[in-house]
């Protein structure tokens, strides 16, 4: 499949297309009361970014694009070098100089800020988003939208109380090709769906065994921990490896990457919560290193109407079981579909290719940080929703349902057994599992309505 459109022209066309869809959505989907609450269609949106690691690059195009009428007021990170690096990179695309800030709470107090992009470590996501909504801000929240199931409940409660726009950063929901094939699947192009296989393979290497050392110069270690209970600093935990060193900050590969594919699988099968969860996982590569979680996981989620989603995750073995590094396969009574960020392929029951379509823009796959045209479209949709011109492509109330699958899998791994789920409430029929429904907070940091 060849790419027929340049990145620049694609963004322009995609943005115009988004506006067209947005205007239709306004007429059909938003009440006069809701529209009255949103920002004017031509008003400038003032934003801040919290978390300036590997993800913030994805926000440069939508913020810098003149037609979006957005101004960046703050760049916030607990590491001084991250703030300075981000400021330098943004200066190539925007004229104003955003204020560099260490503490997001100071930004929350600025009433000029309309919205916050949050790309922090996982343990900050829900507390930070709830804090922002209480301060009157809209939120673009990167995955995972919660650190545990209880936080999923909390963030929806906060959104409903404060009536803010909260977009989850599962960007494939904004892909035109994915949206197209999911619609076709729902209309029966492969018959009745019954199974989806979501997968991810990467070649992450060994990580150091944790050792207590002084925090690096420029890092506010206390603020990095934020909502998490205080503990001693260990070597370079602040720089991405927090993903693999226990459950204080990260959610392992399920929260890190499975979120995306499981969301597509759930969307395609048109299911919500499972009735049963079963996991087989372990650490199989670099067994003597500091990685303290599973690096390989097979998970099975069973749903009503005899539907199943399976997850095949290999963080440190890049063997391409399905001839791709990541994606989702959906099976139906009349055929099957493969879909990922690059596009989709439609097959009949003989395995013959009936149709394929490539996503015309650029979007990184398993590279750290990601970013590209799909991310730009997702952010533009967020801006349009704030202005009342569009419905969100990934509203938080849908995001938390997909995120719940990753939490179920992590809980099953941690307690070493499968369990049944009440598919109406999401609660687990297992006492050991329910002990991990929430988490401990540093005193004073727990989100409270």
Please tell me about this protein's structure.
There is one protein chain. With 449 residues, this protein is α/β, with parallel strands linked by helices. The chain has two domains: 7-173, NAD(P)-binding Rossmann-like Domain (Rossmann fold); 175-212 and 218-363 and 396-434, Dihydrodipicolinate Reductase, domain 2. Helix content is 33%, strand content 20%. It has a nine-stranded mixed sheet with strand order 14-13-12-11-7-10-9-8-15. Helix 6 (125-134) runs parallel beside helix 7, helix 8 (176-186) crosses helix 10 (252-269) and helix 10 (252-269) crosses helix 12 (396-415). The protein is globular. It starts with 6 loop residues before the first helix and ends in a 15-residue tail after the last helix.
The profile of the biggest β sheet is: 9 strands, mixed
What is the succession of H and E elements?
Answer: HHEHEHEHEHEHEHEHHEEEEEEEHHEH
Strand pairing plus helix content: what structural class?
A: alpha/beta
Poorly predicted ranges: 1-36
CATH class of the largest domain: Alpha Beta
Alpha carbon gyration radius: 21 Å
Apparent shape: globular
Tell me what portion of residues adopts beta-strand conformation: 15-25%
* Strand elements, count: 15
Count of helical stretches: 13
CATH topology of the largest domain: Dihydrodipicolinate Reductase, domain 2
Q: Determine the mean pLDDT.
A: 91
Number of domains: 2
Biggest sheet strand line-up:
14-13-12-11-7-10-9-8-15
Shape-level CATH architecture of the largest domain: 2-Layer Sandwich
């Amino acid at each position: 499949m060849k790419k027929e459109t340049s990145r620049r022209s694609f963004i322009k066309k995609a943005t115009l297309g988004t506006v067209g869809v947005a205007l239709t959505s306004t007429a059909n989907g938003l009440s006069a009361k809701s529209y009255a609450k949103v920002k004017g269609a031509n008003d400038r949106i003032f934003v801040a970014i919290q978390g300036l690691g590997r993800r913030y690059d994805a926000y440069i195009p939508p913020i810098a694009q003149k037609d979006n009428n957005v101004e960046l007021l703050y760049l916030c990170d607990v590491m001084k070098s991250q703030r300075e690096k981000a400021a330098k990179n943004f200066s190539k695309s925007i004229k104003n100089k955003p204020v560099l800030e260490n503490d997001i709470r100071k930004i929350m107090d600025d009433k000029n800020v309309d919205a916050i992009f949050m790309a922090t470590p996982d343990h900050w996501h829900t507390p930070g988003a709830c804090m922002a909504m209480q301060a009157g801000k809209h939120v673009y929240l990167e995955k995972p939208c919660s650190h545990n199931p209880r936080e999923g409940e909390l963030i929806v409660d906060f959104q409903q109380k404060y009536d803010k726009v909260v977009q989850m950063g599962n960007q494939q929901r904004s892909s035109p090709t994915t949206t197209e094939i999911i619609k076709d699947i729902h209309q029966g192009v492969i018959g009745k769906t019954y199974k989806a296989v979501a997968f991810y393979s990467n070649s992450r290497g060994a990580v150091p065994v944790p050792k207590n050392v002084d925090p690096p110069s420029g890092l506010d270690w206390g603020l990095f921990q934020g909502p998490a209970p205080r503990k001693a600093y260990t070597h370079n935990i602040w720089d991405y490896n927090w993903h693999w060193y226990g459950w204080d900050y990260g959610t392992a590969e399920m929260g890190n990457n499975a979120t995306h594919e499981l969301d597509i699988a759930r969307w395609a099968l048109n299911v919500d919560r499972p009735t049963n969860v079963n996991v087989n996982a372990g650490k199989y590569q670099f067994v003597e290193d500091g990685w303290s979680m599973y690096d390989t996981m097979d998970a099975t989620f069973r749903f009503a109407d005899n539907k199943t989603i399976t997850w095949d995750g290999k963080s440190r073995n890049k063997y391409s079981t399905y001839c791709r590094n990541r994606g989702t396969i959906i099976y139906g009574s009349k055929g099957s579909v493969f879909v990922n960020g690059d596009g989709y392929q439609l097959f009949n029951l003989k395995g013959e290719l009936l149709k394929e379509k490539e996503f015309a823009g650029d979007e990184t796959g398993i590279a750290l940080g990601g970013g590209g045209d799909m991310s730009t479209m997702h952010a533009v949709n967020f801006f349009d929703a704030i202005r009342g011109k569009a419905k969100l492509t990934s509203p938080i109330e849908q995001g938390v349902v997909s995120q719940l699958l990753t939490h179920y899998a992590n809980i099953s791994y941690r307690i070493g057994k499968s369990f049944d789920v009440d598919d109406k409430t999401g609660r687990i029929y297992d006492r050991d599992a329910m002990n991990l429904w929430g988490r401990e907070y540093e005193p004073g940091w727990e989100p409270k309505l």
